[in-house]
Amino acid sequence: xxxxxxxxxxxxxxxxxxxxxxxxxxxxxxxxxxxxxxxxxxxxxxxxxxxxxxxxxxxxxxxxxxxxxxxxxxxxxxxxxxxxxxxxxxxxxxxxxxxxxxxxxxxxxxxxxxxxxxxxxxxxxxxxxx
Length: 130
Hints:
alpha/beta, about 130 residues
């Protein structure tokens, strides 16, 4: 696994310190974060170069797709990415929404905001980042 981490989050400033803290305390600042805030920014991005992809479900209204739409595009066009996805959301009913979108068979990792750096560390390590 490489150390490239993609974070699809429209309110990145609200989680940046958590990711930076996890990187500094748990990974000796070896991780490289790339943030995009809307689905349109995925165009031209080498999506396979990221070992973990954090996806916020509720993206800004100027995003062509919400987080579920992005995950669905990954499922259809890059199925090998499904085991790299970590959902980050403030929705505590996310498990029901995952079932409604027929994604429950993928055993997606879910983090509920606010997220602590230990949760980020655990998610990254569970995806093979060491």
